[in-house]
Structures are given as structure tokens and as C-alpha cells.
Please model this.
Amino acid sequence: MHVLRSATLAAVATLLLLPPASAEEAAAPATPAQPAAAQTTPAAPEPTAFQRALTAYGQGDLATATSQLETYTAANADNADAMGWLGFLYLKQNQAERAVTTLEKAVALKEKAGPRQEKDADTYINLGNALLQQNNNARAIEVLREATQLAPNSSEAHINLGLAYSRAKQYSQAAQSYTRATQIGTQDASVYTSLGYALEQSGKPAEAAAAYRQGAQMDPANATPAKNRYNLLLSQAQGHQRANRFAEAAAAFGEAGDLASGNAKPTAYYNQGVMLSRAGRQNEAAAAYRKALAANPRYYDALVNLGFVYYRTNRAKDAVGHFRTAVHVAGSPASRALANANLGAALARSGDRAGAAAAWRRAAALDKNDYESRSLLAGYMLDQRKTAEAIRLYREVAHIRPRSAPAMNGLGLAYQQAGSFDAAATAFKRAIALDPRYSYAHNNLGVVYEKRGQLREAMVQYRRALNVDPSMADARRNLARFNRQRAAR
Model:
């Protein structure tokens, strides 16, 4: 069997945001607002390289500012303000790893120096920002909570803490942080969008809609009935989704797509396709995915899922084309691995087994834990009598899933083809131990016993295979042949 994998529901956002292109296992949070690094200028203690760095920063020369601060901190490693500024500059240049290391030093120096002050919150905010860039949400939450304690009236601290909670899928806490930022008086409309999304995910659609409307009112360019309707449709769609009312969710996503513009349009149509597919309406799902691709021809998730629908509806050649495109537009090794794995399945169904094997080989190289691609590739190598390669691949498969009876059965078949009957028998016995009702392993162990002249043991295994699966033709033929030979004697 060729196992395909589809992409899942994409994150949704209001029209005030661009939703992310990637999909998560469930509806993932749309990245609300990128946290802004604190800009408060730490006090420069002396007109040295530190002061020259601040002057260069003020002139927009980040490279000189960074170089000067690196020189200064090398000689003044205990200056917390200088460390904080250097970490901030690394962060401005998207050097998250160096920013985290430097800002952690700055925080440690400030904590060692004695009671912290409100202005120290900037260093904690910047450290939280850098940690978020590294997807270290737990540590970011810890640091940003410190920032809100040092500066309880800093909207920046609460906004960034809200983002950290949202990324950790702690939506109730995220909503509390965003709410506090609005109470302080932020004028950033996207904060209300982020608040709305956190409230949606907390199961509070009415409050979410109110937050969305407030955000639209703060941004006149977006304050139209259609956009408010769009936000409400998203709330309704997600409510239907959580209740497994997939047809109703699809209708809401589809209407949202008709109202949307920019990147929000293909995302809404894509989610409509996911819901229609879950409702079993594959032809309509394909139409929704095609609408998403009309709006964004490089939409990876829509390409994968449309290919998946074509595969399931026996349009393998159409599936091949979409999976090939998905391979080309994939933005990460994991995405390319998934697209290649599915491409292999579609090529195999189209009759191009050599092409399928090449695609599975690429998928396996991209993903060291890809069980399905390795297993299918190993089966192909076995059919081509490339026994050594089949053994190597089945060993990898068994390593990935050591408790998989099919993996051990495949390894046994490869050993059997190589004439290593003892190793084959061991593998088949291991498969039976893992799953006593795995009929193929019983039958294959019977074949090995018969080849080794252990006829009584062979007959026992053939019978066990048929006891488990009375319709198993191979075991029935083997037992019938065995009985004819015994009667002839």
C-alpha cells in the first residue's frame, strides 16, 4: 500500500495580518505581531568605544556600532548596559543565537548588581524577543514575565509576552497579556487582532469578534463591513471546526475567501478545502484547493492536498504534476520530504516504479525518520533483486519502528532472498512475537522451514496463517501443495 500524507489546516488571521503559509497539526496561531525590540537607550557610562557605538547606531551604521561594542565588551565584560546594547544590535541584525548569548549575560550582570530598575526591563524584552526567534517559547515566557514585573505599564512587555504564550498555545494567558497591553493604551491595531485570535482559541468567539472590530476601527483602511464580516466568518468557521461540523466550517471559510484579499484569500480557500475533504466531499475540496492556487500558484499546502485528492480519486497523473510542483516550491527539507514521498506514491500508481523509487529515495535522504518511503523503496529493491540494498533499507525501517511487525517481515524476506535462512527465520519470528496475528510472517516462516526441510514446522505455520486469515491465498496454496506432496508419498 502506498501511504500518502496531506497537509493540515492552515492558520487563519484577520485582514490586518498576513497569515503564515505553513500548516500545523491543528489550526495553528497566526503569528500575531512580531515583537519589537525595546528601543530605550541604556545610559552610556563613558565616551569610549561604547559612546562611539551609540553615535554610529544613531546614524544607522549598525556594522560600526556592533564592532565598537564588541571591542568595548571584550575589555569591559562586566558592563551590563554595554552587553544589553550589543545583544540588541545582534537582534536588530537577526543574529538570534548571538543575541541570546549576549543578552543572557546582560541579564545575569543586572541580577548580580543588586535591585533591578524599571529601565532594566528593556534587556529582558529584547532577550525574550531573541528567544522567540529561536522558538524557545518556554524560556521566552519566563523572561518576559520578569519584564512585566519590572515594568508593569510597558505595553511592549505585555505584547511580547502575549506572543510567547500564543506560540506556546497557552491562549488564555495570551489573551490576558494582550488585554493588559490594550488597557495600558497601545495604539497598535494588530494587538487587537492578536487578542481576537487568542480569544477565538480560548473558545470565546463573541469577545474575539469584539476585539477584531476594535482593531478595524483603529485602522481606518480596514474598517469596512466586509472586513468585519470576514473576521466573524473566521470565528464561525473555527467554531464549526471544533464541533466537527465540517460542511458548515467549509461554507464559512469559502465566504471568507470571497471577501478576503492578499495572502488571506488563498488561506481561506485552502481551509475550505480541508474542511470539505474531512466532510467527504472530495470533488468540492479539489475545487477549493484550485481556487487557493489561482490566488497563489506557489501555495505548497494547497499543492500537496490537491495532489492528495487527485490520488484518492484515481487521478494519479494529475496528482504527479501537483506533487512535482510542491517539491519545487517546498521551503524546508521536511516539506520536500513529504512532497517527494507523495510523488513516489503517485508515480507508482501511474506505473512509473523507477520514478517512484527515485522520489522515495529523495524523501528518505531528506527525512531520517521517514518510515513509509524507506519501506516502499525497500520493497521495490526486493522486487528488483537488489538484495543488499533491500536489507540495508529494511534494517533502517526496523530501527525507526522497532516494534513494527511489517518491518521485521520485510527484513525477513530480504534475508530469505539472500539465502540467509537462519536470519530470515529470526526476523519472521520477531514479527510474529510483535504481532501474533500477522499472517504474512507465519506464511513466510513456513516457507523458510520448508526450504530447510523442517516440513512439520512449515505445515504448522501455514495453518496458523490460515487460522488468522482464512482468505490468504499464498498460505492456502502452500498448504495444499504440501498436502499433495505428502499424499503422493
